[in-house]
Amino acid sequence: MFDLTGKKALITGASGGIGSSIAKALHGQGATLAISGTRREALEALASELGGERVHITPCNLSDLEAVDALPKEASEAMGGLDILVNNAGITRDNIFMRMKDEEWEEVLKVNLTAGFRLSRAVLRGMMKARWGRIIGITSVVGVMGNPGQANYAASKAGMIGMSKSLAQEVASRNITVNCVAPGFIKTAMTDALDDKQQEAISGRIPAGRLGTSEEIAAACLYLASEEAAYVTGQTIHVNGGMVMI
Amino acid sequence: MSDIGERVKKIVVEHLGVEADKVTDNASFIDDLGADSLDNVELVMAFEEEFGVEIPDDAAETIQTVGDAIRFIDANSN
Asked: So what family is this one in (chain B) (predicted)?
């Protein structure tokens, strides 16, 4: 099950914790990858961890929209096609609403939502011709719940869900599915920085009693990328230990 | 021109799965041939590939009938 042999996937934000786990999961099932991110060294380390086979490094700063437009072509040429797009890259610029700067709002929307829109638009042509495609957005539980101090981030993540549902309806007849994965609290470098008391406070709000792992997010992604998920589109899979049930 | 016309009509027949005799110059892709807006995008992609022309979005929007497509390609291909 979930065999991706011969499939070609572009993953943004692959240098991060969740992104690198997604890369490993897809690669492990046979996919060829273009891994994108801002930190070339981290991408090179990931590529060598994957054994260097079936993996191409395509660094890109998603806040530079010209670079965003160039990325799908570069990735597609490197891999010889593009079947799966994982819009995983995201940034935060937290601030309470009344103090939030225009730049903080715009930068988060640009990287988290506009870049995903442009990348999705660019990859659709090839997917339409191939009559097969998978677009997966990594959103967040925050996009559904809201979170104080994260109005910009929550708006971008909610926007991604609405965008995906609309696109899913447009292209479903062409065997292209568009879905989201919404992580809850996941163990990353960011949560490792919290002290024990803070970590316990977070875990106390989660029925599963622990933080999630990036591998658990990657597993949901792998499912959505697979042939087996062909009849699933416009959905958001919540991977949050039961913190929110929708 | 006639060669372009035949190739355009062949693409339309194949893509939309319609009878060849319905694909006249005046046939509208959407009103007469049952295309939806996504079919139109795909037809434009197919024309671009077949004839090696680039059909920008604003031009694509003006291509409503089979004849519109033939005329655009005839004027813009080598």
From this structure: Belongs to the acyl carrier protein (ACP) family.
Interface contacts (A, B; CB < 8 Å): 11
Total number of domains in chain A: 1
Number of domains in chain B: 1
pLDDT digits (tens, 9 = 90+) for A124-140: 999 999 999 999 999 99
Which residue of chain B comes nearest to A174, CA vs CA?
Answer: B38
How many angstroms away from the CA of B71 is the closest CA of chain A?
24
Digits of tens for pLDDT over chain B (78 positions)? 568 999 999 999 999 999 999 999 999 999 999 999 899 999 999 999 999 999 998 999 999 999 999 999 999 986
The residue range of the domain holding A51 is 8-239
Q: Tell me the per-residue pLDDT of A153-206, one tens digit each, with 9 for 90 and over.
A: 999 999 999 999 999 999 999 999 999 999 999 998 767 777 888 888 888 999
Q: How far is A79 from chain B (nearest CA, A)?
A: 21
Query: Domain containing B30: what range?
Result: 3-76
Catalytic site positions of B: 36
Q: Which residue has the tokens 């004849």?
A: B67
In a domain, A244, yes or no: no
Tell me whether residue A199 is in a domain. Answer: yes
- ipTM of this model? 0.81
**At A142, which CATH number?**
3.40.50.720
Q: Taking the model in full, what pTM does it have?
A: 0.92
